[in-house]
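Appendix B, example 12.
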Amino acid sequence: MQARHVMSSPVTTVDQSTSVDECLQMVGQSGFTVLPVVDERKHLVGIVSEGDLLRARFRELGGSSAPVTTKPEVTAGDIMASPVVAMTADAEVSELASAMLRSRLRGIPIVHDHDILGIVTRPDLIAVLTTDDTQIAKEVQHRLDIYGGAGRWRVDVTHGSASIFGVTPEDPERNVIAALADTVPGIAEVHFPPE
């Protein structure tokens, strides 16, 4: 399974001049634990975590032994981590999980060049691990029913492998059916067994 199947999109981003207080409000509203930081072209230049924001805010309030900044307002650009660990939409979920655990990251932006397509967070990975085959099969069936009408095809899923019944080898919709099934998180492969 690839990042494109599990990423959250669109992504809540901030620019380098966004204040720490504004970032904290965004984190509170969005539920994300990290915010990608973008430049004026909306290209990824850094990332701030809830931990970065809390440390900066408490430092501003004098709750730290670190020297208080003389800057009037601390911004995302002041505290962001850069360079950013980012991956492409075709990165495997196992690569994302490994990078998150190895680097203690809470989220990894998914990019094309420097443009942000989405973000994969720890809760996204947990959702993949806790989704069972029955739920996955229902979602594939739902998408196929919307596309082709209820009951036209039948779906079984075992260990992430989808078997779609009712599709002949010469069916002109075969590739579309496979693509619809393949976009469901948890699907690793699609088969059309003979009936």
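The longest helix spans residues 133-148. The beta strands are 14-15, 34-38, 44-49, 107-112, 115-121, 154-158, 161-165, 189-191.
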